[in-house]
Description:
Blueprint: H1 70-79, H2 83-91, H3 95-106, H4 112-128, H5 130-139, H6 148-158, H7 162-170, H8 176-203, H9 215-224, H10 226-233, H11 239-266, H12 271-288, H13 290-298, H14 303-320, H15 322-330, H16 335-340, H17 342-347, H18 354-361, H19 368-384, H20 387-396, H21 401-417, H22 419-427, H23 433-446, H24 451-459, H25 464-481, H26 483-491, H27 498-510
Helix pairs in contact: 2-4, 3-4, 4-5, 4-6, 5-6, 6-7, 6-8, 7-8, 8-9, 9-10, 9-11, 10-11, 11-12, 12-13, 12-14, 13-14, 14-15, 19-20, 19-21, 20-21, 21-22, 21-23, 22-23, 23-24, 23-25, 24-25, 25-26, 25-27
Amino acid sequence: MIKNMTLAMVCLLVGGVAGYGLRSMNENGGRQPGKADAGGTEKATATASLSATAGTAKETSTSSSTGVSLSDQMKELLADYDVKSAQKAAGKLSADELQSALKLLAAMPKSTDRDALRWQLYRAWGALNPDAAWKAALADPLDKNKGYLLGAVATAVAKTRPAAAIELALSLGMGGRRSAVMSTVFSEWGKVDVAAAIAYSLAHPDLPVDYVSFTTGLSRLAEKEPLKAANLALGFKDEMRRNSLLTSLMSTWVERDAAGALKWAQGLENPKQRQDATAAAVGAWAKEDPAAALAYVQGITDAETRTSSFKKAWKDWFINSPTEAATYLSSLQDEKLLQSVRFEFSYYSENLTPKERAALLAQIPDGKMKEDIYRTMTDSQIRKGQYNQALEMLNAMPDSRDRDRNVVKLGQEWAKADLAAAGAWLKIQPDSTDRDLAVAGYASSLVRTDPTSALNWANAIPDAKIREGALKNIAVRWLNADPARAEAWISSIPSFTDLDKRMIRDMAKINSDLITMPITVGERR
């Protein structure tokens, strides 16, 4: 048994790529780059040449359509920004007025509303003179490497000639701008004719377009024709894309006709598609009625489909109602189904308090699943530096090799984070197998800065097998820190066989921080 001790610890934080951070346009009609309405289809014979080049923009002080100065009009739009008002105002301006308005806005303080309004202006300009608008967006210093304003122009082109808009995106070459514009084009095309957009994408598999671009279009189609939307999603060969799209549209279909969605999914001939579609449908159903969804899962005859559907449904239930979902597991007799959700149980419990986690775990029947959950949770807590919480869970676990490994890891990781605190904690631990294992981990970290002390700690371990394993791990890490001294020491240890020495050297070459020599217990005490 390991004794808990509250000590000050340093929390270690880890940190994708930051987005542009503008408001979403998918649903509100235009606040985020490249998310305006578009549509239309055409053959893939379009070129990037779209219209005659516009003349040089003139400085226009007054809008010919309103009689109000452009400056005042832009300020008025920004004062209480509204997407529809911005679209309407931009649509009334001439090409010259649009250019002048863009220059005025570029000189104003940066804000989300200012950038959203500039997007609307570029889109309107793209409808009037796409060549000129595209060239201006390419040179716009406020859009460097983002593809935001280029996406606005491309959406205007995509309304009537999506293939030409795709050619524009491809002309940008590799990089973030091309990805942003390509996603915008397919997203806008998909909102009007998602079947055509998907067909074009599947016919041109080399196009760098993300499947997320079709999510909105398929969801909208699912509201009217769920069967057609689902069959379109099946067209994607990539399993991840297909499953994501199915999950998205199933929420709409199941809400309207759960029986119809499940009948379609279960009727698919392709086994993998049947499994994925059923899991998506059951998962959507579970959000509304988890007990009914899981009862349905019990009747699925195909083992793989039953397992994947159970996993999907139970996970969503656990996220929303942890106590109810955990209680359900307490009466489940199917070990395979229990094992299928052990990771989900562990992962989605991480944000709970130790007391809450303990209450949930108390409902899980003893057995391999419970042991695996304990192992996964303690591993995660050790990695996060939550050592006292890890200790509480380790004390609740039965003896096993997995538990032994995590006790060793506790000593190792704690020493990396706070050598003094870990050492002080070890000194007050009573003589036990757990202390031996924790010391083995502690010594393997200590060797990098103080080999002599590390050897003293390891040599004092009473259990001969644990001591031998600890010395081998010290050898592996010492070889990386000080090869000459380590080699001399390794050669002086008579208990190290030639095979041991070869393994130690090989492991030191691979990655001594990630791979350790196995440590086994001789006799527990």
